[in-house]
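Q: How would the structure tokens look for this protein?
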Amino acid sequence: MAEIAEVNEREVGDLPWSEYLTTVVIELYRVGCPEWGLRRRKYRCCPVRRRLAGAFEEAVGQACESTPLRRVAQQFGLVASTVRAIDLRYL
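A: Here is the predicted structure in token form.
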């Protein structure tokens, strides 16, 4: 049986609903396995390396179609380089 060795929280940005910005907080577990050692548990619903939800990236990508990147970054509270990366993935 695997034993929980460490618990971390990860924030995942999502679409701003109404006047509020929505952030989902998930717990990530590292478990100790006698055979394999410490391993991070996989989550299908939220990839570990991505900090932004797909719907949020879609909204940022759509905004980039008609608005300069700097303005989109201000609107969504992101750094311009992050908006640029999202825009490239969106295209």
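The mean pLDDT is 77.

Residues 3-90 form one domain.

Upvote if useful.
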